[in-house]
Every structure is written in structure tokens, then in C-alpha cells.
Design a protein that fits this description.
The protein has about 150 residues and is mainly α. The chain is about 75% helix and about 0% strand. It starts with a helix and ends with a helix.
Length: about 150
């Protein structure tokens, strides 16, 4: 916490008044305790709208209740902020997942293209092998005919 934050808090809370209120709250003086209803909050920030001071609450109790509810409200806001961060992280994960799906689709398409190319090359090699075998047999037949003198 910065020193300016500490100064701000000190100026918004009248310590002398708080001490007097605590002294009045000691046993034997409870009948003269002031009520908080209608008095402004000791801090500049407003209290959450889900709480309201009851009539007849001594100032000390009201100050304590305000301090606690503000701490809880601060924690609740931090929890909500964490939720927003989680939503952002989830959106990033969803985007990354979409990219991964695109990459997988590209890999599958590439693998399919490789298989199709392999099939073409396989067929071409076999056609060449058959053609070469046909040429070899033709040459052998012609050679035998030449040896026999039938050509």
C-alpha cells in the first residue's frame, strides 16, 4: 500500500472520534451510545447496496460492520476479476483449439494428397515395369527369330 493510500485512509477516519466511541461502548456507558442511522459513512466509498445499518446500532458496531463488509466486498470484486481472467483464458484456449483443429485438418489433407500421389507413382512404376517386360519379351522373340533365321 502506498503512503498516499495510508494518508487518505487516516484522513477519512477520525481516530479521536473512534476512540471516544470505543470508550463510550465500555460497560456502564451503553445507554449514551450514538446511533449510526443517518450519519455519513466514515469512508469516502459508499457501502455495498446489499447491506444497510439497522436503527440503534452503536457507532463502534457500525464502523466494525462497515470495515468487514468492505473487506468482503473487496474480496468479492477480486474474485469476479479472477473470473473475468478465466473467461479470457478460456477464450484463448478456444482460439488455440480452433487453430489446432485447422492444423489437424491440414495434416489430414496433406496425408491424403501424399497417398494419392503414392498411388499415381505406384501405378506409373507398374505400368513402366509391364511395358519394360513387354519390350524385353518382344526383343527376345525378335532375337530368337533372328537366330532361327525367320526374320
Amino acid at each position: 500500500m502506498t503512503s498516499s493510500g495510508q494518508v487518505r485512509r487516516a484522513t477519512s477516519l477520525d481516530l479521536a472520534k473512534l476512540e471516544a466511541d470505543v470508550a463510550e461502548a465500555l460497560p456502564g456507558s451503553t445507554s449514551s451510545l450514538p446511533s449510526i442511522k443517518g450519519l455519513p459513512s466514515v469512508q469516502s466509498e459508499s457501502m455495498p447496496d446489499y447491506v444497510e445499518h439497522q436503527d440503534g446500532v452503536p457507532r463502534v458496531g457500525a464502523l466494525s460492520a462497515e470495515a468487514v463488509v468492505r473487506d468482503y466486498e473487496s474480496a468479492a470484486k477480486e474474485i469476479e476479476a479472477m473470473g473475468a481472467e478465466l473467461i479470457s483464458a478460456a477464450q484463448k484456449c478456444e482460439a488455440m483449439t480452433a487453430e489446432v483443429h485447422n492444423a489437424i485438418a491440414f495434416m489430414r489433407d496433406t496425408a491424403t494428397s501424399y497417398r494419392e500421389e503414392a498411388k499415381k507413382i505406384f501405378k506409373r512404376i507398374e505400368e513402366c515395369a509391364i511395358f519394360t517386360e513387354h519390350v524385353r519379351k518382344t526383343c527376345e522373340t525378335v532375337k530368337l527369330k533372328m537366330i532361327e533365321g525367320k526374320v
